[in-house]
Structure formats: C-alpha cells, structure tokens
Amino acid sequence: MDQIGFPPDNSTHAVIAANYRNLGPNAQVQDQALQSLMFLEENTAVTVLNRLIQLRLDAQDPAATLRMLTVFDPKQVSPIIKVVSDAVSTPGGGNPSAEPLEEIYREYYLSANADTFATFLHYMALRQDFPGALLILEGLVRANIPPTPDIFTALIHVYFSTGHNSAAFRTVLDICHVRPSEAFTSLLRQGLYDPVAYLPFVPTNIIPTPRMFNALLKG
Hints:
The structure is a single chain. The protein is mainly alpha-helical. It contains eleven helices and no strands.
C-alpha cells in the first residue's frame, strides 16, 4: 500500500488483525494492531482485541493473553484472568517459543463482549476444564452481558470435552422450542438425551444456529 501511495492506517491494521487467523500468528501484525486499538471505535477495537487474543491462544501463549486482557475492564474479565492465570502456572501450560509481545499502551479500558467470553469457553473446552468454564459463565452473568448463540456453541464443546454429553444434547433440544417427538425417542433410545440432565447454564431466548448443530454433530 505504501508503494502505491496509500499508507495503511489504524483501520487497515484492524482489518488485517481481525482476519489474520487463517494465515497464522505474525508478531508485526499483532503489534501494529495493538498500537492502533485506542484510535478505533470501541466495538471495532473489541473485535480486533478478541481476534488478537485468539491468535495468542492458538499459539499456546497464555502469558501474552493475560497481558492483552489488561486492556479490558478488570471487573468484567477477572474470572477469565483467573482461569488463564491457572493455565500459565500449570507445567507445560505455555509456549516458550511464542513471539514476544510489545508493551500495550491504553488510555481507557475496553468493555468485553459475548465474543470475548465465547473465545475463552472454547479455550476451556480445549483444556477440558469444566470448573474453569463455569467460572467464565458466572463472570458473563455478573457482567450483565446477554448470552449469544456463540456462547452456547462454545458451551456445547465444553460439555463434550468434559464428558457432560447429556447436558450438551439437552441444551440444544431446549433451545429448539418446536421439537419433533422422533428426536426425543431416538436420542432417548441411544442414551444420549436425558430430560432431567443438570444444566449449569439454562438457555433462554436463544435462536438455534448451524454452528450449534455442527458442534452437536462433532461431539
């Protein structure tokens, strides 16, 4: 862009960071995006920060993830900080070859959103950490952030990865308000659906999505 007379600005770095995951982590991309955060509109900045956090989680770098979390309001993300700190303190929980992170400058805190919490629920699914996932859900409720379909998609992954399969099936069937009786019969016969399975997080006013069913099929 520089060569043709259109130098990249803060929005350019934001777009690159928000869409860079499929290309893998890149320290220069991440550092430039972090430096541009405070010049972006807040919703855009939160989206970019969520993507940057995902890149660091993909790189198995919870220590850098903790530093990125300092940009969020600490009252909102304290449960997330707790579970990520536990990951850092676990032997083998970090990646010693991860790219170092430059200093993060901020003038104000950003507000985490549902995508922030969904990102870390997916992380708990990978770590097979059910108590950690429950702590994150409690934080979501305390922060008064309405749950989204992506929250429940991530929660389904948590259920399956931690052996709570019945809760995963009941969650999806409870979300589907109009359910054919054949679905109950078939799942009950296979021992996959328990109508009284304990749900630590009850879905209300959630619309089912293809990603939710994909998570159910993946198991």
